[in-house]
User: Fold these one by one.
Assistant:
Number 1:
Amino acid sequence: MKPVEVNLRPVVEVAEMSVQFAGEPPVIALDRVSLDITEGEFISLIGPSGCGKTTLLRVIADLEQATSGTAMVNGMSSHDARLARAYGYVFQAPALFPWRTVLANVTLPLEVQGVPRDQARQTAREHLERVGLKGFEGRYPWQLSGGMQQRVSIARALGFEPKLLMMDEPFGALDEITRDRLNEQLLRLWERERRTVIFVTHSIPEAVFLSSRIVVMSPRPGRIVEVIESQLPADRTLDIRETPEFIEIAHRVRVALHDAHD
Amino acid sequence: MTSAAALPRPRAAAATASTSHVLPVLTVLGALGVVWYAAAAWLNAPQVIERVLSDRPGWGLAELLPLTWSMERPVLPAPHQIALDMWRSTVDWPLNSPRSLLFHTGVTAASTLVGFVMGTLLGLVLAVAIVHSRTLDRSLFPWIIASQTVPVLAIAPIVIVALGSMGLTGVFPKSVISMYLCFFPVTVAMVKGLRSPGVMELELMHTYAASAGHTFWKLRVPASLPFLFPSLRVGIAAALVGAIVAELPTGAQAGLGARLLTGSYYGNTVQIWSALVMAAILGLALTGLVAWAEAALTPGGKR
């Protein structure tokens, strides 16, 4: 079965993009990378540390400047896309404001956008319900577990109702059991809403379980070595990790990563 | 409301902590009293022996001790003498009388509070300017530090006289000295506080395309509050010192500083001590005020 009914307009177009960091000698973080992402895809960027996967995400989000080449989001430059609030970004750490309640943390982007208070609270409540945190609105971040905090930050990233969600190793700091549960929740969220997701990870099972396409990258200089399509059934659960299909895709990712290193 | 049930717990813990603190505090107070009475007896004994007991042969410790604790101008007054003097000078006179200790306390408190408000505002403005301008950071900070190396005792008379010649007398010149001492801790703490948000928090605001104003009010200011309040506690105590020092060179008309000065003119040590104790009580009350404001303004904002 074909899980995604896509409108083929590219949400993200990265063309011949290079990023160099000053230094002696200069570090080439990304070397002429090109990647098109169409609406509704779940893309994972995977590779060893130093392969530029986070840099690629950050350039698309206009948190880092490309040395050459272009990154377009929704047909706009990444700079204009950021000003148009076209995406939600989830960082490696929850980065919640400790002086704000859970609800007030989720209303933050809406306040910045100028959404009226009552409407912002209403929207924030809905977002929290979508990540399974109904009833925790009045708590403070330090009263929640690490996994719950990261779910709050996902609810916060849904603030502008962005078509594009970028996640930079969001579950990297969590234990495996929590991580599995959050992976499943994230997959359900994606299935329901079909937002385009770009997900940075260095975990092969996580990438294979979540993604519709897996972009394998190699370090020094950062390049895309292979793009692997994954057509696992949409309503998959964690059990799928025991199936031959899953193991076969995971194997292909592992081989690509291995070849990249040689 | 499970969250509401979880929240009052720290307050209950604080209450039991404060009752368990009573015994140690009382123990220290008792020990202090014993040491104080002993010291008073030791320091006042030579005078008592010379003036009172020299013509009374055969005196013993039983006669000496009560006398050392009840002299009119002792070297070190006993606690009960100070307490009695404070009681008399607050209760026996109307509030507007220059003989009332509360009158002087009120004068000093007014200069302190006005100076504290001015100093805090100056400190905040300087901190915001320094955080937002690299040029000001480099050019202002050395001057701010240099300003604090000038002893306040030297600068206070100059400021009082200069402002007096411009026709400014009363509370304002004293507040300027308070401000001078008070702004520094606020500036230093707020520069640190306003710069405390991490790269990730700043980038988060960046992804929201937040304006500088939004980043300032929604991120930098709330993040700086844990730095602000301790500096205000230091600042208000410094403002009190500034106000008392500023009261010394004015010819001692009113205020706790004036009370200290007249006490030392006339060798009235009991009056000096009661003014000192009053200044300490005022200092505690003022820092208590800041602590109360902190508790009121940071709901649940605990890490």
Note: Chain A has a mean pLDDT of 87.
Number 2:
Amino acid sequence: MTATAAPLQPKDYASDQEVRWCPGCGDYAILKAVQKTLADIGAVPDKTVFISGIGCAARFPYYLATYGFHTIHGRAPAIATGVKLANPELDVWVITGDGDCLSIGGNHTLHVLRRNVDMQILLFNNEIYGLTKGQYSPTSRQGTQSPSTPQGSIEHPVSACAFALGAGARFVARAVDTQQAQLVEVLKRAHAHRGASFVEIFQNCVVYNDGVFDDFTAKEVAPDAQLPVQHGQPLLFGKDKRRGLRLDPRRLALEVVTVGEGGVTAADVLIHDQTNRTLAGMLAALEPPDFPVALGVLYHDPATPYEADVYAQVAAAGEPAGGMDELLRSARTWSV
Amino acid sequence: MARSASTAPPRREARDHAVIRFAGDSGDGMQITGSQFTVETALAGNDLATFPDFPAEIRAPAGTTFGVSAFQIQFGSTDVLTAGDELDVLVAMNPAALAVNLRDLRVGGTVVADTAAFNERNLLKAGYAANPLEDDTLAPYQVLKLDIDKLTAEAVKEFGVSSKEAHRCRNMWALGLMLWMYGRERQATVEWLERKFAKSPQLARANIAALNAGHAFGETAEMPADIVGYTVAKADVKPGLYRTVTGTEAMAWGLLAGMRSAGLERMLFSGYPITPASALLHTLAALKQYGVVTFQAEDEIAAIGAAIGASYAGSLGVTSSSGPGMALKTEMLGLAIATELPLVVIDSQRAGPSTGMPTKTEQSDLFQAVLGRNADAPLVVLCAATAGDCFEVAIESVRLATKYMTPVIVLTDGYLAHAAEPWLIPDVDALPGFPVRFRTDPVGFHPYERDPATLARPWAVPGTPGLAHRIGGIERSATTGHISYDPDNHQEMTRLRAAKIAGVAADIPPQGVALGKAGGALAVLGWGSTYGPIHQAVKQARADGLDVSHVHLRYVSPFPRNLGDLLRGYGRVLVPEMNNGQLVQLLRAAYLLPVESLSQVTGKPFKVATIVEAIRASLNGGRSARKGGRA
């Protein structure tokens, strides 16, 4: 056993396995951000467990020097729940993709969020099925051409954060794979939240869906197309931070305004309240080109995690005075 | 010396066993009536076996034949292993109960009928054109026609209960009469009623009054000359402290005992509601003080997933379901096999396919348990034979799951889940231990390094310093545990997975003979809940001088090492199963033996007579009158 050593560096969280994602994949950037997050929070590798389902993203645990469990398609939240119930001391992270999380595993995502089991769920949303070679996914935009939708997809996509909020998630955040500083910040906050944390990471699939997020992540449009939200701060965006969101009370809808134009003052701009679920839902629904994409912690309102309540019931049940002997005699008995 | 009938002492005749069935509407309380008769019978020292038979509908329309709920019990002074083929007494609380159950009453048997329920409306619902109590329908039987509703109402009127509540006491009146008929006490039922109605004492008093009135009616009334009481002597059983137990209770306690024997602090039992498996979840949910955490998952897949996650994290992961739910768990079973984690899966089988008949028993998940997964995916399959046997099989499942790092499926069924029998309470402190050894030494650790004796990989639990590693469903190197698509490695890993499970055969008892001898003209080979009827049938046939023995399997994957040789020692092998011949196919495949099938899929247990007939037919050269004879 090693004695207390210097704090671990991001590279210390890398396993000895060769990373096998496509060159240029957004997953590399997320891996880097997670390793930095783990170093920054001082994660103990032996007490950290990464659990994944199936898909490109699901290879993630193999590349970290922590405990890891690559499970089956869509089911990581169920297995993670079992891990957390068996040992609440473990720090559990779930790595999932848009198909894994919102299609085959949608039911488990719903329930792990509803129950509020303490874990970080990182959704790598690339709006496509990568590992099966490019079919449209539940988050693909309508009209997405893919091998299974040669005439374009018909379905309306699901909004990951709206789904999470609807499921009762108590921590919902968004980040972009290549925007490392914000991503690390969001991951740290997700980790600090006790309960289920849901983080949607826009992740570029360089092979099957390259550039799908360019409308708000490309350098030239990002300042006007992204709204970084901060609790207690006005919802301002744009290069000079003059554009902002105002509530139109007649329509109960958000609208984009420019401070200093048409009589709009700074006081008209909404202040972000991360404990306001209604506001979080409105922010999650904003889409280009009419609105910026809200990034950062959209919602954060902690409650007791599921496993804590479970063990409170176990504690309340107490210790059996007579042990199993008493249990087996807990009915009418007779001697022969 | 002539005495008037009303003052004559109760006439009692001795019987060595009896079979009675309480039948009524779903809302008539037949299950609790039967359960209380069972308790009083157990306390009277008889051996017994029960068969609760109830509809899937929670509250079927009153008076209908599909709403009939029944509880059958056989009890006696010699060993009783089945609930009985034919009824001596049928208590019919309404016409539908009579219509559905009369065919099981032996000629000369007794019908106790509540005449109040035999009104025009109920007769119509039961399909009777005329009242069977008034025509010759019941001519072959003794009939005790009683206005139980009115007699109950008179007995309870002093307690000021509503007429509806009074009506609901008539099952206790009928119970009291039957307790009189067989000379049973009432005290345990009185105490049970006082507990059950602790919050409404007037209901407790009314029910107790009804119970006592039914009993007094038998004791004092001017009964028809052909109705007498009976005595059934105590059974000669092994000395010790007894209680009654259902398969569900025994399974739950066996899992707890197994957890203790394995030295594990915690069990995670996760399930999703499904008939008839839910009872196990309910039972364990009330036992949190014994180290079990129960988790009602969002679906069957999550239920087994959470159990696998718990095992991965060092607890005993257990899940439970029935056929359709087992189908949903299939992919997860493959993951547990690939990642070589301990897991116990209890399958309470029911009639299928698909939804089938949820409340009716069957043994048709054998193929699913042994073979039902993608790819070559071997695991251990155990079968419980009786309610009490569930305790031992549960312990054994924990031993094998933890020692061999493998999923173990335990097959039970709807009959075993609900059936009750007297149970010699075991000394749990005397149970042998099989403590698990978690891997803690990081030196030379890799996750798929195998114990050369068991071929089990180490149980290396997250949180253990220095053992951080990755596992998953992707094929992995037999030497390093890293992802591997190497052709030779997959060949080797497939071999290792099979060899590990096959090796369990060296760690289980050789197959014995339950009754009779090794070798002879005929073996009747069974597995699971057919134990009772097979045992009784073989016993009867042997008493008639037939050369037949009973062999009963607990282990169906792998089979015991000596099973092939044992079966080859018999001229013929007959396999009664509540499926279409699944064990027969497995045996033929394993041993190339021409075993014969006796198949029954009626949703009910075998009758002893059916198996006796098949034994005779087999010994006569296989000329069975029944379908599913020698193939």
Note: The longest helix of chain A spans residues 26-41.
